[in-house]
Backbone:
């Protein structure tokens, strides 16, 4: 319970001045998703134990962000979901100090107009002790000021004086934490420091930070040496995210109802690569936990833009793709396909898995699929 209290205290100061927010709402005219349509989607998800909400792997679909935000707020407000985990760095959720949620969530979400209304809603629920939050990625986000500038000092402070300065130099020489670096970190020395930090950790949070840094650095050094394939590196990152989900859920209230926000490629419960089946966050969670429900997101037409980049049109959906077939004879702005409907489509072309249309057995990958008819690019909160 000490960990839970730390998390609540960490977010309290951010949330205490936030006005009451019952539900995230956007201008209905910007999307056309009416309450009745949204209610039917939420009703289908309401009784699930763990809901994995995906999005296109490009993280560039603004209306998906809008829709997901509205679903998240309703699941928390109306269905008793009390844990929200997101594909952001874990470090800002472990340091025991009040974080800024805009910094604790990756800027590709927190700095967009489509996601930002969700932040005060989440903060208020934490303040009311109705919600627990965590980041599940071992990667360091560029806006995470704690991970980039303070964490190394906190972790090395637990070491003997004779080792402290050397290890601080190693952290400061890592391009994963500092941009640019003046002196590259030495692999053996850096891992030696992390091993010693793990051995001398005074709290489970310190141990978890060190374990995540170890996994992140290992992939980085392997990549530099050409000792890991892109596919293997992807799986190792997903395995790390799974370990973080499991770590959080052991510390949050028993039988919590959980929302995980991540990309389609992570939440998919089955995934095939060039060398065969790939282990994803979703597949590992399916094996470990009961009641996991994975929802993918895709779009038929429109535009896309990752935060701060120019918008570009989406490739037109082929007539034999699920993005086209789902809207045949329909003027709806959104289609929500359940598992039986996905099974009926069988192996079918889709853009849900990347930039190119590929044939995939979507019913094996997702329990449901959201298809937005007309996507739009994300909009930055900062002047460009």
Residues:
């Amino acid at each position: 319970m000490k960990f839970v209290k730390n998390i609540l205290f960490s977010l309290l100061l951010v949330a205490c001045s936030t006005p009451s927010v019952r539900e995230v709402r956007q201008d209905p005219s910007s999307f056309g998703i009416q309450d009745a349509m949204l209610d039917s989607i939420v009703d289908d998800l309401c009784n699930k134990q763990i809901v994995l909400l995906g999005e296109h792997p490009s993280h560039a679909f603004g209306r998906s962000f809008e829709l997901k935000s509205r679903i998240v707020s309703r699941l928390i407000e109306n269905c008793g979901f009390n844990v929200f985990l997101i594909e952001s760095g874990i470090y800002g959720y472990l340091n025991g100090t009040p974080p800024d949620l805009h910094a604790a969530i990756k800027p590709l979400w927190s700095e967009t107009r489509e996601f930002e209304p969700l932040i005060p809603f989440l903060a208020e629920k934490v303040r009311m002790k109705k919600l627990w939050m965590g980041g599940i990625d071992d990667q360091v986000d560029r806006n995470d000021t704690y991970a980039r500038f303070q964490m190394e000092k906190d972790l090395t402070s637990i070491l003997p004086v004779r080792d402290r300065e050397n290890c601080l130099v190693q952290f400061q020489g890592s391009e994963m934490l500092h941009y640019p670096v003046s002196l590259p970190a030495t692999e053996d020395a850096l891992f030696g420091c992390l091993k010693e930090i793990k051995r001398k950790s005074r709290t489970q949070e310190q141990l978890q930070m060190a374990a995540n840094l170890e996994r992140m650095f290992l992939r980085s050094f392997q990549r530099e040496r050409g000792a890991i394939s892109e596919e293997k590196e992807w799986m190792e990152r997903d395995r790390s995210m799974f370990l973080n989900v499991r770590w959080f859920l052991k510390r949050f209230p028993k039988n919590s109802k959980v929302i995980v926000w991540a990309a389609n490629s992570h939440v998919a419960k089955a995934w095939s690569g060039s060398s065969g089946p790939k282990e994803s966050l979703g597949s590992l969670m399916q094996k470990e936990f009961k009641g996991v429900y994975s929802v993918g997101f895709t779009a038929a037409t429109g535009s896309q833009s990752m935060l701060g980049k120019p918008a570009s049109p989406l490739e037109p959906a082929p007539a034999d793709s699920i993005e086209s077939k789902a809207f045949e004879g329909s003027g709806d702005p959104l289609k929500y396909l359940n598992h039986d409907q996905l099974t009926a489509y069988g192996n079918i072309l889709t853009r849900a898995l990347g930039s190119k249309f590929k044939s995939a057995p979507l019913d094996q990958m997702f329990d449901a699929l959201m298809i937005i008819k007309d996507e739009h690019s994300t909009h930055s909160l900062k002047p460009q």
Notes: Residues 145-228 form one domain. The longest helix spans residues 204-225.
